[in-house]
């Protein structure tokens, strides 16, 4: 049988990147190979996101472009998976009748079988069940263990870095957010399984793991015998794994950032002092309408704890501008919070109303788009200036980086030479660009920083003189 060719396009958050890796790994076992365009493929999969309208529009227009391909080659299988598949369900068949497969995030382990069924029957298939109604969570639990262990290092930025899921779903129901209704109820994964998967990744040469959860620091697993494993306990256990040098975790929920967890981060040298803790807004009125469950005073108190226990930690945030009813005065309070907290960087989003959320039901999306855009640009400019200032103290300093691969520019102009521009990351998630050698990819190396802008540090690899030989520390 000739090899089937798979093309996969992924949008959305790290959860989706991981899901795509797992689906590709499962399909490889059935003899698929990956190709780099939809044109060359006989199976095309889209792993989708519904967090903002824009993310959905992108997928619908990509699907539109495939209409002709399907007319020319009716054998081509087109599948839509992930959050938008869960949210829109058969609407996708109505908007793009040539789609063969719709699969929600809880059923991704079924993708290989579903594709075979479609090939055999010629019928469309949709699997989007969510086990919320009767309270059982079997399907969700299964989706953890039935396919998580299959990994595919070629789908990762580098084979030395991997995502490890520790939670699925979300129970917070922030009023603007679609995630709880497409990803289902929050559930923490058994620490034994997390440890086993991380050990296996280490055995395969992976050096950095990033633990994933929508509110990762709310992690809490109750064992049969009544014991509880919390995030801090989990970090202590993962820290013991030989071969894993760096441990990160995203995304944190402000209310659950306990001093116990911050202390674990301080005491465990492999745990990166990098904390992504979205604030979303600096105004209590807005936070209240968002139903975030904290006040700006709570957030400030959390920042004080972070600065006290981890004075060198890089803290990053997300903000939504133009949420329903956000006044100029509310926005100014957000600006104030950004100036005060001096985040390493912030992701800033214009509010996008999501049908099916409480926010869409209760409040009018009343901030005109040009106002959202102005607030977005203003906040971004303030944040970027802070990011640039905060990168300046790195000038002349030596940092340790995990080398990830060619820089964007070098990847584009790749001529196969061993010497090229590489990028790596510090423990606190700062990107460093430097001239290096291909064989340094995957190593942890010292670099001297000589320049910096808002987003990037520029450095030179440290060389050590031994006799007449000059070599890179490795
Ligand atoms: N679980 C994470 C974030 C998930 S979504 C958390 O709770 O922080 C990633 C980011 O997208 C959010 O932090 C928020 O800033 C943004 N976002 C979510 N819903 C949005 C919406 N309807 N419009 C604009 N931005 C949104
Ligand atoms: Fe969405 Fe809030 Fe859950 Fe984050 S915590 S995924 S923003 S509902
Ligand atoms: Fe998007 Fe789903 Fe992630 S909606 S942000 S891909 S959980």
Primary descriptors:
36% helix, binds S-adenosyl-L-homocysteine, binds FE3-S4 cluster, 474 residues, binds iron/sulfur cluster, six-stranded parallel β-sheet, alpha/beta
Explain briefly what this protein structure is:
This protein is α/β, with parallel strands linked by helices and 474 residues long.
Task: Provide a descriptive summary of the structure in words.
The structure is a single chain. By secondary structure, this protein is of the alpha/beta class. About 35% of the residues lie in helices and about 25% in strands. The protein is built from 17 helices and 23 strands. The protein has helices at about 15-30, 55-65, 65-70, 85-90, 90-95, 110-120, 140-145, 180-185, 190-205, 230-240, 260-265, 285-290, 295-310, 330-340, 360, 370-390, 410; strands spanning about 5-10, 30-35, 45-50, 75-80, 100-105, 125, 160-165, 165-170, 185-190, 210, 220, 230, 245-250, 275, 315-320, 345-350, 400-405, 420-425, 430-435, 445-450, 455-460, 465, 470. The strands form seven sheets. A six-stranded parallel beta sheet has the order 2-1-3-4-5-6, sandwiched between helices. It has a five-stranded mixed beta barrel with strand order 17-18-19-21-20. A hairpin with a 5-residue loop joins strand 18 and strand 19 (about 430-435). Helix 10 (about 230-240) runs parallel beside helix 11 (about 260-265). The protein is globular. Bound molecules: S-adenosyl-L-homocysteine (SAH), iron/sulfur cluster (SF4) and FE3-S4 cluster (F3S). S-adenosyl-L-homocysteine binds near residues 52, 177, 320 and 352.
């Amino acid at each position: 049988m000739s090899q089937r060719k798979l093309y996969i396009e992924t949008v959305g958050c790290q959860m989706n990147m991981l899901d795509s890796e797992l689906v590709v790994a499962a399909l490889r076992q059935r003899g698929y190979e990956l190709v780099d365009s939809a044109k060359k493929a006989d199976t095309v999969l889209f792993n989708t996101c519904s967090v903002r309208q824009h993310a959905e529009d992108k997928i619908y227009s990509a699907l539109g472009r495939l209409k002709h391909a399907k007319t020319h080659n009716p054998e081509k299988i087109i599948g839509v998976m992930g959050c938008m598949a869960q949210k829109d369900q058969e609407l996708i068949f109505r908007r793009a009748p040539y789609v063969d497969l719709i699969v929600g995030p809880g059923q991704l382990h079924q993708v290989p079988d579903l594709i075979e069924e479609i090939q055999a029957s010629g019928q469309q298939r949709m699997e989007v069940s969510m086990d919320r109604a009767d309270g059982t969570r079997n399907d969700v639990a299964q989706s953890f263990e039935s396919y998580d262990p299959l990994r595919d290092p070629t789908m990762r930025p580098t084979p030395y870095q991997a995502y490890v899921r520790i939670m699925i779903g979300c129970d917070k129901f922030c009023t603007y957010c679609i995630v709880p209704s497409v990803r289902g109820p929050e559930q923490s994964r058994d620490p034994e399984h997390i440890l086993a998967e991380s050990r296996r990744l280490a055995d395969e040469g992976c050096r950095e793991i990033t633990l994933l959860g929508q509110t990762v620091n709310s992690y809490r697993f109750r064992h049969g015998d009544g014991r509880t494993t919390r995030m801090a306990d989990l970090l202590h256990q993962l820290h013991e794994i030989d071969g894993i040098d760096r441990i990160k975790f995203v995304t944190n929920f402000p209310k659950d950032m306990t001093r116990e967890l911050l202390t674990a981060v301080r005491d465990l040298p492999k745990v990166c002092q990098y904390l992504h803790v979205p604030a979303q807004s600096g105004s209590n009125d807005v936070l209240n309408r968002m139903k975030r469950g904290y006040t700006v005073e709570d957030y400030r108190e959390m920042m004080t704890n972070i600065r006290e226990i981890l004075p060198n930690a890089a803290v990053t945030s997300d903000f939504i501008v133009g949420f329903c009813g956000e006044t100029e005065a509310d926005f100014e309070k957000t600006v104030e919070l950004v100036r005060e907290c001096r985040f390493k960087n912030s992701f800033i989003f214009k509010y996008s109303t999501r049908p099916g959320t409480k926010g869409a039901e209760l409040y009018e999306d009343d901030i005109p788009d040009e106002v959202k855009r102005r607030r977005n640009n203003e906040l971004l400019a303030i944040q970027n200036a802070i990011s640039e200032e905060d990168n300046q103290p790195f000038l002349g300093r030596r940092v340790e980086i995990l080398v990830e691969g060619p820089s964007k520019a070098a990847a584009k102009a790749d001529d196969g030479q061993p010497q090229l521009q590489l990028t790596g990351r510090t423990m606190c998630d700062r990107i460093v660009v430097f001239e290096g050698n291909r064989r340094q990819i995957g190593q942890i190396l010292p670099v001297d920083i000589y320049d910096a802008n808002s987003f990037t540090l520029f450095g030179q690899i440290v060389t050590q003189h031994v006799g007449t030989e000059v070599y890179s520390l490795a």
